[in-house]
Specification:
Number of strands of chain A: 29
Radius of gyration of chain A: 28 Å
Low-confidence stretches of chain B: none
Largest interface: A-B, 26 and 23 residues
Structural class of chain A: alpha+beta
Oligomer: heterodimer
Distance between the termini of chain A: 74 Å
Shape of chain A: globular
Number of helices of chain B: 11
Number of domains of chain A: 3
Number of domains of chain B: 3
CATH topology of the largest domain in chain B: Uridine Diphospho-n-acetylenolpyruvylglucosamine Reductase, domain 3
CATH class of the largest domain in chain A: Alpha Beta
Mean pLDDT of chain A: 97
Mean pLDDT of chain B: 95
């Protein structure tokens, strides 16, 4: 077989790769033609509605569903909880029962008809008050009952370094819990059908993992993995919370099995906010010390927070973030709260670590009368092991971001943001991420009629995965984008990666490139034999096969040589062949105005300079960064889960009071990829998570620069801004 | 969502008849931007929904020498789409421009906003300060109620079963007058007011002194609140910073806000003062023929 060199080819040689290409499914999505799980409406579908616990901690003492079952149109009731062994509810919103009925309205009537009673137990939902958690015995304890931290790590001699330092800054910082708030809630449409020889269970599941949730359905029902088909062609957000079959997916499958009808069970909005995942909180006392030149010599932090009933918080082993001073002492403690559990949220731990580290460092810079950009630059020789690889990139990215922000022109000392009630300021923060490819296959087929397709058991989270797969296939085959097909979103295709950890773009494009190179190599053999040319000289472009710049034949003519059996090649991932790489860094800057009489923050401009190796699709890649910035603006300004200490309930679990940004809150976003040839040559690295990491810290730092006052806890709601100003 | 009957009368008489027949279990539907949400969420369970958009009297929008007639079902976009109304009744069109987004403004009506009787209704303070009179028709005939007396509690108003708000009448604007509405929301757009302030001022011919002023506050009391004491405190005073500060201080004394997740009582009192000053300043600027910046908080 003609072996094609496994590279992306020289920079600038592409018709598609690196260009701004609109999503191939954009029109379907924008027009509503794209079918999401919640749009699945097979004939006979029953609709499910949920009964959830209305207490933070309680035992179900009575659960009678007879009246619900008696309602005409109600087909089945599924119990997540019951009196007896499985009676305990551990947070507001925990699932108790589901009713499946002919219509959603009848299902709601069914839910209302369920008789449920609870024994209400004492609760703790305060994530910020460490002393209250201590009094309630909600921390971690050893076998003797002694309170022990989750992490207690010392490097060097931080106390001595602090004593010897020229400047020491001490501060309090924090970041509250947020929910994932997927626009499309979690849920599944399940069809149980044992007739015929097809899969017994088809789960049209809103998932980030079509290939790995099938076995989770199968094991629950004693099926073979091959008996379960999982389909997810489109998904309205996951952010790390949709990797599992989930108990509501199992419930939908069970209810379909019991009724012989398809069942659609989507979480309602309140339950979507309360139940399927949150991002943990962290609150920290920090001491950081430096020489008068801004070299950080020591870091001490004690942080606490919650990730729900498990009693975790943000990862103490990664504190401080990116920077790694020679002396440090980090303690972390988790509070076991009666709140909804956590799940991975876009860049798990990193936004919170950054919001605590980079804020403290900016305050240190202010104390040194330095610009934080200069402080960061002074410490690029002491980065943690992951960030180290990027030390040179950070310097260049800081410079480029400063240019785009007009930093030199706009920068002023801490608190010199103007004389009127509205103050203006700048902030900066930086981040790191992995983005390495993982196990994934892509099956490429080329047909005798010239058709070409790549299929992968992965999914498009809305990031443009379908488009980049098609781009790589089209580029490799020398075809226009619209003449190839990219198939994904089903576990009936070859195994594809779950989409989490910013691993997808490298995995699917690497695998597809390898498969397409192999498939076209086979095609070259056929062309070489027919047209008496050396296969090694052949290349593809403009829908034709070329030999040393001479056209040999058209793509269609070449494909006619294939015969009835299509050329099939399966490309693997990961392979250390240079197509993909890992580790990225990025810098973000914020320009904000703060109304010191009302506390409202307005984002004037955000700048994001991001490296991610070779960019396959500049347009969808930029969209990832825009999305990251917007999510960052959300958790920096208004987005938070509000728990009521008295009732223990999640009181803003709706789209009115769970405050996400409007267009008017977003300001001007400037996104640029840092991509010199050295970056192109690294190959593809994932991008999904990094752009959301440093946004919050950058905005918080800009508010501090504007007003001269640190608003210590994110989100910086107007109330918190005014409180901080009043206390200053 | 509970099933309901739908009626769409084309005459006022028929609408009143349907409402009267159902004795309190019918809800009028204008834009529906609140009603549909309430019904879907189960907060309201009407037996009959009476679409009033097809009745001519409720779609009146007429500006003449004696003032402005605003049909109760007239959507926001028609109101701010009229340059003369935007110029003369600026507080009203300020409100109409910030209620929801464009889709909402294409449906939502000022009449619906006042009948919904939420304490944080964005158009009600404007209607009050511009001297709006609510024209009500019912089985017992027609009556008129000043806008500041229309709402009686959260979600409650003077309408009796069978009665319908037909239109709001506004007097002609005096010379040297200006008005403004602004709300405080934690975000920069499309949110529920934590505090809302409407103000209308009349200046003397020198445009340096306040002849009279009307101020109304939203979201700081069980109903949108007309605060004549603020106007009384600044009538006859020079239109300057000291006077505005005095107005803010008086307003803060008059409010009785609640603490909830949107803001503490103390915080709302503070914002009442800040917004009263800012809104009066903007109304004065307009009375002087100056343009104002209507971006929230800036």
């Amino acid at each position: 077989m003609a072996e094609r060199e496994v590279t992306w080819g020289p920079r600038g040689s592409h018709t598609l790769i690196g260009k701004e290409v609109s999503r191939i499914d954009g029109v379907e999505k924008a027009s509503g033609a794209a079918k999401y799980t919640n749009d699945m409406n097979q004939p006979g579908t029953l609709f499910a509605r949920l009964l959830t616990c209305t207490h933070a901690k309680a035992k179900v003492t009575r659960l009678n569903v007879d009246k619900a079952k008696a309602i005409a149109g109600v087909h089945t009731v599924y119990l997540f909880k019951d009196i007896g062994e499985n009676a305990e509810c551990n947070y507001d919103g925990e699932l108790v029962a589901a009713v499946a009925a002919e219509t959603a309205d009848i299902a709601e009537d069914g839910v209302r008809a369920i008789e449920v009673a609870y024994e209400v137990l004492p609760h703790v939902v305060d994530e910020q008050d460490l002393e209250a958690a201590r009094a309630a015995k909600r921390l971690k304890y050893d076998d003797d009952g002694k309170e022990v931290p989750l992490v207690d790590r010392t490097v060097g001699d931080p106390d001595k370094a602090i004593a010897d330092a020229d400047v020491v800054h001490t501060g309090y910082y924090g970041i509250h819990t947020i929910s994932h708030m997927c626009l499309e809630p979690h849920g599944a449409h399940c069809t149980w059908d044992e007739s015929g020889d097809g899969p017994k269970l088809t789960a049209r599941h809103s998932t980030q993992a079509v290939s790995t949730t099938g076995p989770q359905f199968a094991s629950q029902f004693g099926l073979d993995a091959s008996d379960v088909r999982v389909i997810c062609n489109y998904i309205g957000g996951g952010f790390g919370s949709k990797f599992a079959a989930d108990i509501w997916g199992w419930a939908a499958a069970q209810m379909s099995k019991d009724t012989g009808r398809p069942v659609r069970l989507m979480l309602d909005r309140a339950t979507e906010l309360k139940t399927p995942g949150t991002r943990p909180s962290g609150f920290a006392n920090v001491t950081v010390a430096a020489t008068k030149d801004g070299k950080i010599t020591a870091w001490k932090s004690h942080h606490w927070g919650t990730n729900g009933p498990q009693g975790g918080t943000i990862d103490g082993n990664q504190m401080p973030y990116v920077f790694d001073p020679p002396n440090k002492h980090v303690v972390s403690q988790g509070i076991a709260t009666d709140c909804g559990p956590n799940r991975a949220w876009r860049a798990p731990n990193h936004p919170q670590l950054c919001a605590i580290t980079d804020t403290a460092l900016t305050d240190l810079a202010a104390k040194l009368n330095m610009s934080p950009v200069d402080l960061y630059k002074a410490n690029l020789d002491q980065l943690d092991d992951t960030a180290k690889e990027n030390s040179k990139l950070y310097a260049a990215e800081l410079d480029r971001a400063a240019e785009l922000m007009e930093w030199e022109k706009k920068w002023h000392a801490h608190g010199k943001g103007g004389n009127g009630p509205v103050k203006r300021g700048l902030g900066v923060a930086l981040h790191r991420w992995g983005g390495q490819s993982v196990k994934c296959s892509s099956e490429v087929r080329i047909f005798a009629d010239g058709g070409a397709q790549a299929s992968i058991g992965s999914q498009d989270l809305g990031t443009g995965t379908r488009t980049v797969i098609a781009m790589v296939l089209a580029e490799t085959c020398g075809l226009p984008l619209e003449k190839v097909k990219a198939r994904l979103g089903s576990n009936e295709y070859v195994y594809g990666n779950p989409s989490g950890g910013s691993i997808t773009v490298g995995s699917v494009t690497g695998a597809t490139r390898r498969a397409a190179l192999e498939a076209t190599g086979i095609l070259f053999d056929k062309v070489a034999e027919k047209y008496k040319v050396d296969a090694k000289t052949l290349s593809l472009g403009d829908e034709a096969v070329w030999s040393d710049k001479k056209k040999v034949c058209s793509w269609k003519d070449a494909c006619r040589l294939i015969g009835p059996e299509p050329i099939t090649a399966t490309g693997p991932s990961p392979v250390a062949d240079g197509l993909t790489s890992k580790l990225v860094g990025g810098v973000q800057m914020a320009d904000v105005s703060v109304d010191t009489e009302t506390g409202v923050i307005r984002i004037n401009r955000m700048v994001a300079v991001q490296d991610c190796g070779l960019v396959i699709n500049e347009k969808t890649a930029k969209s990832q960064v825009y999305g990251g910035l917007i999510m960052g603006i959300a958790y920096a300004t208004n987005e938070e889960r509000i728990m009521d200490n008295n009732s223990g309930r999640y009181i803003n679990a709706d789209m009115e009071t769970y405050k996400l940004p409007r267009i008017g809150d977003i300001g001007e976003l400037i996104v640029e990829f840092y991509q010199p040839d050295s970056e192109y040559n690294r190959g593809v690295v994932g991008l999904g998570e990094p752009p959301v990491i440093s946004t919050g810290a950058a905005i918080a730092n800009a508010v501090a620069n504007a007003t001269g006052v640190r608003v210590p806890v994110l989100p910086m709601t107007p109330k918190r801004v005014l409180d901080a100003l009043a206390q200053a | 969502m509970r099933d309901f009957e739908y009626e769409a009368p084309t005459t006022l008489a028929n609408a009143i008849a349907v409402l009267a027949k159902n004795n309190g279990s019918a809800r009028p539907l204008a834009g529906g931007t609140d009603l549909i949400d309430h019904v879907r969420c189960g907060r309201l369970e009407p037996d009959v929904v009476v679409d009033v958009k097809k009745i001519d009297e409720l779609n009146v929008l007429e500006l003449n020498d004696s003032g402005l007639r605003l049909g109760a079902a007239t959507p926001c976009y028609r109101i701010y789409g009229c340059p003369e109304i935007s110029q003369q009744y600026a507080a009203l069109t300020d409100s109409c421009r910030i209620i929801g987004g464009i889709q909402i403004q294409s449906r939502a009506s000022v009449g619906g906003n006042i009948c919904n009787s939420g304490p944080a209704a964005d158009s009600t303070p404007s209607v009050i300060v511009l001297g709006g009179i609510c024209v009500i028709e019912g089985p017992g005939g027609r009556r008129e109620v000043p806008a500041e007396e229309f709402c009686t509690g959260p979600g409650k108003n003077v309408l009796k079963p069978g009665e319908l708000l037909v239109e709001i009448k506004f007097p002609a604007r005096p010379a040297n007058s200006g008005s403004h509405y602004r709300r405080f929301i934690p975000r920069n757009e499309m949110d529920i007011a934590v505090v809302g302030v409407g103000a209308s001022v009349v200046l003397d011919d020198s445009k340096e002194n306040i002849v009279s002023a009307r101020v109304a506050l939203g979201a700081v009391a069980p109903t949108p609140l007309y605060v004549p004491a603020v106007g009384d405190a600044i009538a006859g005073q020079p239109a300057n910073e000291d006077t505005l500060r005095k107005a803010g201080a008086v307003a803060k004394e008059l409010v009785t806000p609640i603490t909830d997740m949107r803001g503490t009582a103390e915080y709302r009192v503070h914002l009442t003062g800040v917004l009263t000053e800012r809104v009066l300043q903007a109304a004065i600027s307009r009375a002087r023929g100056e343009a104002i910046c209507t971006k929230i908080g800036h």
